Amino acid sequence: MNCVPFAGASFGADITDVDLSAVRDSVFSAIYAAWLERAVLRIRGQSLDDDALMRFARLFGPLEYRPMGWITREEREKAANPYLATISNIVVDGRPIGGLGDAEAAWHTDMSYIEHPPTASILHALEVPEEGGSTHFCNMIGALQSLPPDLARRVRGARLKHDAAHDSVGTLRRGHHDVDDPRDAPGACHPMVLRHPETGIDALYLGRRQDAYVEGLPLEESEAFLDTVWRYVALEGDVWTQEWEVGDVLVWDNRSVMHRRAAFDPTARRLMRRAQVRSTNQA
Hints:
This protein is an alpha+beta fold. It contains six helices and 18 strands.
C-alpha cells in the first residue's frame, strides 16, 4: 500500500496498491492512519459488491442506517440491507432508484442534523457521467484557522442548529414541511467548533447553510453571523475536486471536511453506493 498526498491541496491522498475486498489488519491500520491525517482518501480501480463494501466500511466502525428521509422505520425493519444508500439519478419504471438526483448539492456535512453524526462516509462509483457530477471537498480545519481572531472567538462560543428537513440539494425530506423561520426547523444542535476526538484538532462545523440557526441570537443577527462565517469556507488551497471514474472509492472524515456535488446532465447515468460509519463518541 502507498499513500500519495493530493497535489496542490492541504488535505487528501490517493491510496494505491490495495484491494479493498481483501484488506489485512496491518494494511487497514495504515489506511486508517492516513485517513485521520489526510481526511479524504481515494482508492481507484475497485470492484466491490454490497457485502464487500460493507465489510470494508465496518473496519472503520459500526454502520449507520440510511437517512430517515430515505427510509422509514418500518421500511428499515423490513429492508434486506438498511445500511447502504443508493445515490443516483437513474429512474426505473417511473421511480428513482436512489436519492439526490442530478442537481447541484450545496456544501454540507453528512447527516449533521442528528445528535451523533457519522464519522466516515464511504462512496463507491458504479456508473459515472462523461461530464459533470464532480465532488468538491473543503478543509474545515483550514476554514477555522482562516477566521479573524474576533470572529474565531465568537465561533468558539456558539452553537448551531442543523436543519433536518432538507437534503443537500434543497429537497424537502419525507415527513417534513417547509418553515418560514429557521428557529422552527427541526434538527440537532452542535458546537460551531468541533474538536476531533481522535486527533484533537479543531475544525469549523457548519453542516449546511439552509435553515441553519445560531442558538440564542435574534434571527437577523444569526443570519448575518452565519453569512460572515461562510465567507471563510472553501478558500483557495483548502479545496480539492474529485473527478469520478468507475471503480473509485472515496472515504472522508465528516468531522474535518465538507463536500458538495456539481450538477450533471439529467440524461446521463450516475450510480453510487454509500456506507456511513456510526459515531461511537456519544459520551
